[in-house]
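Pasting as-is:
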Amino acid sequence: SSDKDRFHPGIAKVAKYLDIFAAGGQQPADANIAVVLHGGATCIALSDDAYTERFEATRNPSLELMERLWQRGVEFFVCGQSFKQNGYAEDERTPLVSLAVSALTANVNFQADGFAYIPIH
């Protein structure tokens, strides 16, 4: 199977972080996490229908894990520049992911709000 049939490893790292955080005696809700998708991860912001049409896959393999993370309070954003450069249309984006102007501005704004920047590849 191709990489387009497997969930994005960065999303798995976020899930692992939450599990580690919870195992440390903290409630997951105490960690405010915002994930900014860009570059090669932009495609996982697509709905199942858009993903399957574009990549000839059976589904967007990252959505199930993203939804579980979203239910635990993780927010998802996608770089608007990457989204447009890849030719994706607004109606192709999953409702789990908000559209940011760019990854750069989203990261700067989150850091200004007290978030730590942790690159996940």
